[in-house]
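#help-structures

NK: newbie question. if I give both the sequence and a SMILES, will the prediction place the ligand too? trying with zinc ion
OV: yes, paste both and it writes out the complex. here, I ran yours:
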Amino acid sequence: MGQSRKGKKNRGRERSETCEGCGRLFPRHRGVEYSKRSTFSTDLRTGDNVSHSIVIDAWYCLSCAKHRKILEKIKRQNERQRGAF
Ligand SMILES: [Zn+2]
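OV: that's the protein plus ligand as structure tokens.
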């Protein structure tokens, strides 16, 4: 995915991120970072059913974060990290 640091024009000091939901460009303070975990398994032909899970850091603008209930997920993640689980 497009995480190239070269060729990205930064206005001022603020970094811009592309929204994973709608593809819009927004300044960081207008969105949230969300690490989503996706799991996939290797080819079933060989019988080796090895599943990998990778974590993808994605940015969402505020409206997409609200729509997709990402804000709630992030809240829950933070609560777990504090040990309130
Ligand atoms: Zn969006």
